[in-house]
Each structure stands twice: as C-alpha cells, then as structure tokens.
Design goal:
The complex is a heterodimer of chains A (418) and B (243).
Chain A (H helix, E strand, L loop, with lengths): L12 H25 L9 H19 L7 H10 L3 H27 L18 H13 L7 H20 L2 H24 L15 H27 L4 H15 L3 H10 L13 H27 L2 H9 L4 H16 L1 H14 L9 E2 H9 L8 H29 L5
Helix pairs in contact in A: 1-2, 2-4, 5-8, 5-15, 6-7, 8-9, 8-11, 8-15, 9-11, 10-11, 11-13, 11-14, 12-13, 14-16, 15-16
Chain B lengths: L2 E12 L2 E12 L3 E5 L6 H8 L7 E6 L2 E2 L7 H7 E4 L11 H11 L5 H14 L15 H13 L5 E5 L7 H16 L3 E5 L3 H7 L2 E6 L2 E7 H6 L4 H10 L1
Parallel strand pairs in B: 3-8, 3-9, 6-7, 7-8
Antiparallel strand pairs in B: 1-2, 1-4, 4-5, 9-10
Helix pairs in contact in B: 3-4, 3-5, 4-5, 5-6
Classes of the chains: A mainly alpha (418), B alpha/beta (243).
The complex binds adenosine-5'-diphosphate (ADP) and magnesium ion.
C-alpha cells in the first residue's frame, strides 16, 4: 500500500482531522468500556490482543491529525506538545489511558466508597477508606497524649508563632529585624515554657505526653533553626587555615554523617546520660533535639561548604583588599552569596529533617507518624493502617511542599544579575 | 618626598618554585610606577605581596612605616590604606554599585551611612558612573564595572593604589574610559603602582618604569630613559615586541 496517500497534508485537512478524531474517540470509548464494563470492541479476540485495540486506534488517529502548521492553533499546540512523533503519541496515550484506568478506583477509595460519618470502626461499611478512624483520632494525631484541658496552650503557642511570622512579612523593614530577633531568641523559650508548664500556675506536662503533629513542628522548628548556624560554622571551620579548627570540624562532620540517625537517637537515650554528672537529668526531648540538630548540622555543613567553594577567589581577595577581617568578609560578602547559591541544597536538608522526625519513636516520643502507628494497634481500630499512613503521608507532603515552594520563591526573590 | 613603600630583599616561593627573587624597591609618596614584563614574570605576585594577598617568605616589606609579616596585628588597617583594582574587577555581585562602594567604609571605617553614601557618590561621579549607582554589577559593561571597582577602592580613601592589569579583561573600546579615570587619579596626586602593558598610559603617567622577568626586577629607570635607551637586552626585546 502506498502510505503517502495516508500522509496528512493541508489540502484535505478537514477530512484528516475528522477521521483522526473519530479514531481517537473510538480508542477512548474502548478503553473506558474495558476499564468500567470489562468488555470492549475486540473482546472476541484473545484477551492480550484486545488490550492493544484502543492503543492502535489512538495511535492511528494521532498519526492522521499530525499536520504541521495546520493553521489551527489548538491542533498545532496539541501536535507540538503531545504528538510530535509516533513515540511521543504512544507516551501520551499510555499516560491518558493509565489515568482513565487508575484514577477512578483511587477516587472511589478516597471519596465515593469512603465513610466519613460515625464514631466506630463498625460505621465503615462502604468498602472504601474509613476516614472515621482519622476523625476520631484527629485530636491525638495533632496533640499526642497532651491533656485535652491544656491543649489551648499548644494552640496559643502556635497561633502566636504564626501571627509573628505573618507580621514579619508585612511590617516595615525597621521592625522586621526586631521581630526576627524575638522569634529566634525569645519566642522559643516562652513557647516551650508555655507548653511544658510547671510555673505561672500552669500544670506541668512532661514531654512524654507531647506528641502528634504539634511535636513534629516543635522538633522540626528547633532543629531547623539550630542546625543552620551550627552547620555554617562547621563549614567555615572545615575551610579554616588553623589545623586544630579544621580537623575538629572534619572529625565532627564525618562522625555524624557516618552514623544512621536512628543509632544517634538510641545513643542519645542511652549514652548521653553517661557523660553527665550523676543526678543531673536532661529531658529526653532535649536530648533528641540536640541529637537531630547535630546530625543535620553535619549535612548542612557540607551543603554550605559547597556554596563556599563555588565562589571565585577574587571575592575573598576584594574583601580583604578593602580591609575586611575574617568575620566581616564572611558575613558581608561570602556567606550572602554562598548561601544564596545553595538554597536548593538547604531546602533539601530541611525537608529531609522534617521527614526524619518520625524516628524519634525510638526514645518513646510519638509525633504524627508515631501516633498513627499507635492508633492502628488499638484493638478497636485494627486494620486502619492504610488510612492512617495515607493521612500522615499527606500531611507530611503538604508541609514539605509548602517549604519547597517557599525556598523556590526565596531563590527567585534573591536572584540578582551575575 | 618620603618613602611610603619599601621592599628589601624580598623572596617568595610557591612551594619549590621561586616567584620573586631578591626584590628591592622603594616607592615615594605620590610616585607612579608602572611594572611590565612577560606573563608569569611575577608582576602580580609582587604587588599582591604589598597588601599581603600573597605572603613573602624572606626579606622585608614596609608599607607606610609598618612592616608586613605574619606578625602584623593590624593587617586590616594597612590593607584599608592600600586600594587594589583587579583584572577581573571582583565587584560584589549581590550588592548594588552604591552598596559595593559604601560597604567597607561603613563596616571597616565605621563611617555613618549618610557620609559613606555621599563619599560613594562623589567617587562614582569622579569615574563618571554616578548614574549607574543603583544598578547591580551584572548589569554594567566591563568598562563600567572596572570604573566602579576603582570607585569602590577610592571610597576607602587609600594612600596607595595598586592596579593589576586593570584593562586586560576589557574589550578595546572600553580600555580608554578606564585609563582616563586612572590618569585623572594620577594627576590628583595618588601614589600608584600599576601593572599594565598600556605603554601609552605608562609614558603619560609613570615617573618610573620597572621591567620584570623570571621573578627579578631586570630594569628600573625613569620613564623617559626606559623607553629611549633601555639598558638590558631583555628589556629591549620586550619593548620591541610590545610597542
Ligand atoms: N597560587 C600560586 N601557586 C603556585 N604558583 C603560582 C601561584 N600564583 C602564581 N604562581 C606562579 O608564579 C609565577 C608568577 O605569577 P604572576 O605573578 O601571576 O605572574 P604575572 O602577573 O607576571 O603574569 C608564575 O610562574 C605562576 O605560575
Ligand atoms: Mg598577572
């Protein structure tokens, strides 16, 4: 057969588009009928071949409508982006067909067959997700074992934090500085005191009772804020001319990077107290915070060092030639540029940190994922692991996505011409 | 006239390689010296030793009465008095031209911001780029960047200016604007040591010429003598190639 007759051209544009679209349409009908009704046009053929029918229809249809410079804007756009070659057309079809096949069952599980109403596992009868589980346990997922009557303290602490952070975006530059200083140095103490209590007539709540999403935030926020300056100092130390400082930094970084976080956390529980004089007691949350902070600081140090190395030597020389000493040179010239270069790496480390927080279960602290783990072993709620983990996964994803977007915005905002 | 820079028997090694050999040099206040010589002869190393961007291992370097060595405590103070302009400009790309100029006066000299900005504008005016003050280095042409770098150095009100091939990285049409700014500076009485191959500039400005080769000062002479009857054969050869 002479295929050139079948090669689309502009002369009989419309008939090609019509035939092509019809074929693609048949392909779609076929995949829909096979995924929802279990039968299709070529159902009489052996099963494996009938799977290919919609693909063949679709491919041939797409081949027919692949007309260069057809003059039709929509058609041109489709052709350029999804249908530039036979292979490209195949990928397009596979993706669309996969979506048609797998999205509906997922939606069914998530929404249409899911149960939202009720208070017990027995209320979940529709076969989909049992969101009742999440609903009933939501309070625990957010506050852990923190007493219900005291939860306003956590709410207040976080609300203040959000208000302060929000305010820092809107107030004039002059006050911004003070808000940030307050946030970094004063707020953490007030916040922790409010949540732990023990003074000012507030009931003492031991850290073992803290948990859930609020603990995820507390651990992440402290570790994030602390690991950044420590990591930066380690990075500078590793490049120091003084051997004592350099080797201490290298040793520190390599030690922490070489050990799995989970081991570090175990050791923070078992070994750390051995280094302290008898009788002193450091709360396990504090120990865990120190462990995670130092662990992530080692990674941060290497990220920052990458940025320091990327700067041309001339920047150091120019700063020195203007009479700047080590600290002025680094704080005014080197770090602002180096840190900007490694924002993606910093964001990476931060995201990893947030996702590492569930590991604190090894010392008996249960943040969000830990609480889910606990809830699913409750005899009344056996078999709810899927719902719990999907929920925890979604929450983590949202947190990480927000952070990732923020870092991208920051990158854009700080981008100056080079 | 009084000595402001003095080098006595300075030797400098990079590991085994000797980059400077027994350098002796005196520079008086307001004197202009142009250093030339083939690539790799140690010109950059020599002037970078003067503000200790490179360390010398042997001999003495005295700048404005203070010796520079590993024991120098207020090295930063000395550096603040010695301005430097680099071949690659080395402006700070994250700061505007104005901030480039005010940063060191504010942080090193503790000058109030207002005064620093006035000083910066004065110096930017002087090199004729006051209108570019708000821009970032990446938005300027090479010639404008190099003039900004000159203004930045001048904002520290240095007693001495060092130039390391300030026009070598520039397109030909921009060389003149930078040289003009340097000529103005020379006329204003600045003490200058300039590494350059722009012999027109040298003839116009320099009091003394230095020819270096293989880490040594081969010839030092008054500018007129240097060009009209150079003593050493190597100088003659070099001049014949470059002129
Ligand atoms: N950091 C360095 N390490 C090792 N050798 C160097 C270094 N800097 C310069 N040199 C060597 O010292 C010699 C003089 O260099 P330089 O002063 O830059 O020459 P010039 O500026 O005259 O071209 C050259 O041979 C160069 O290779
Ligand atoms: Mg050089």
């Amino acid at each position: 057969m002479n295929l050139s007759i079948l090669k689309s051209d502009k002369k009989n544009l419309n008939s090609f588009i019509a035939t092509g679209s019809a074929l693609i349409f048949i392909g779609f009908i076929d995949i829909i009928s096979s995924s929802f009704f279990g039968t299709n046009i070529t159902a009489f053929l052996p099963n494996k071949i009938s799977y290919l029918t919609p693909l063949l229809f679709g491919l041939f249809g797409l081949y027919l409508i692949r007309i260069e410079f057809s003059g039709n804007k929509l058609l041109d756009k489709i052709n350029i982006n999804f249908n530039s070659s036979n292979f490209n057309a195949l990928l397009t079809l596979l993706v669309i067909f996969a979506l048609i096949k797998y999205i509906p069952p997922l939606l069914n599980w998530f929404v249409f067959d899911a149960n939202f109403a009720g208070n017990t596992k027995e209320d979940c009868t529709d076969g989909g997700a049992c969101w009742v589980f999440v609903k009933v346990w939501l309070n625990r997922f957010v506050y852990g074992l923190y007493p219900d009557t005291e939860q306003w303290r956590i709410n207040t602490a976080f609300l203040t934090l959000f208000l302060l952070v929000g305010a820092s975006f809107f107030v004039p530059q002059k006050f911004k500085k003070y808000i940030i200083i307050f946030l970094l140095f004063v707020y953490p103490i007030i916040g922790l005191k409010l949540i732990s209590g023990g003074d000012f007539g507030l009931k003492y709540v031991e850290t073992g009772a803290w948990g859930g999403l609020s603990l995820t935030f507390i651990v992440s926020a402290f570790a994030l804020i602390l690991c950044f300056p420590i990591g930066t100092i380690l990075a500078l130390g590793r490049r120091s001319k003084l051997p004592a400082i350099r080797y201490t930094s290298i040793g520190f970084i390599e030690l922490w990077r070489g050990v799995p976080l989970i081991t570090v956390l175990f050791m923070s529980a078992v070994m750390f107290p051995m280094f302290l004089p008898d009788g002193t007691y450091v709360d396990k949350l504090i120990r865990v915070l120190i462990a995670i902070t130092l662990f992530e600081a080692a990674y941060m140090a290497e990220v920052v060092r990458g940025g320091l190395q990327a700067l041309p030597k001339g920047q150091y020389e120019a700063a020195k030639s203007l009479g700047m000493g080590y600290w002025k040179m680094h704080f005014l010239i080197i770090l602002p540029q180096a840190l900007k270069l490694v924002i993606p790496g910093i964001a990476n480390t931060f995201l990893a940190l947030v996702k590492d927080t569930p590991l604190i279960f090894v010392v008996g602290l249960l943040e969000l994922a830990g609480m889910v783990n606990l809830a699913k072993t409750n005899p009344k709620w056996l078999g709810m692991a899927m719902e719990g983990y999907v929920f925890a996964g979604l929450v983590f994803w949202v947190i990480c996505y927000v952070m990732s977007r923020y870092s991208q915005n920051l990158e854009k905002k700080l981008k100056t011409e080079r | 006239m009084s000595k402001i820079i003095e080098l006595k028997n300075v030797n400098k090694w990079f590991d085994k390689f000797q980059a400077l050999k027994d350098i002796n040099l005196e520079v008086n206040q307001q004197e202009k010296i142009v250093i030339c010589g083939p690539s790799g002869s140690g010109k950059s190393t020599l002037i970078r030793c003067i503000n200790r961007l490179e360390e010398h291992q042997d001999g003495q370097i005295i700048v404005d009465g203070k010796e520079i060595s590993e024991n120098t405590k207020d090295l930063e103070k000395i550096r603040a008095e010695v301005g430097m302009v680099f071949q690659q400009f080395n402006l700070f790309p994250h700061l505007s031209i104005l901030d480039n100029c005010t940063l060191a006066p504010i942080w090193v000299k503790k000058m109030p911001k207002k005064d620093a900005e006035a000083l910066a504008m004065k110096n930017l005016e002087r090199v004729q780029i006051a209108d570019q003050a708000k821009k970032f280095p990446g938005q300027l042409s090479g010639g404008q960047q190099q003039r900004s770098a000159l203004a930045r150095a001048l904002c520290m009100e240095p007693k001495i200016m060092l130039f390391d091939e300030p026009t070598s990285a520039l397109d030909p049409e921009m060389i003149k604007e930078v040289l003009d700014a340097m000529v103005d500076l020379a006329k204003a009485g600045m003490t200058m040591i300039v590494v350059t191959h722009e012999m027109g500039f040298a003839k116009e400005v320099a009091d003394n010429m230095i020819f270096m080769d293989e880490g040594k000062i081969v010839e030092k002479a008054k500018t007129k003598d240097f060009f009209e009857n150079p003593k050493s054969d190597r100088t003659k050869l070099f001049l014949s190639q470059i002129l």
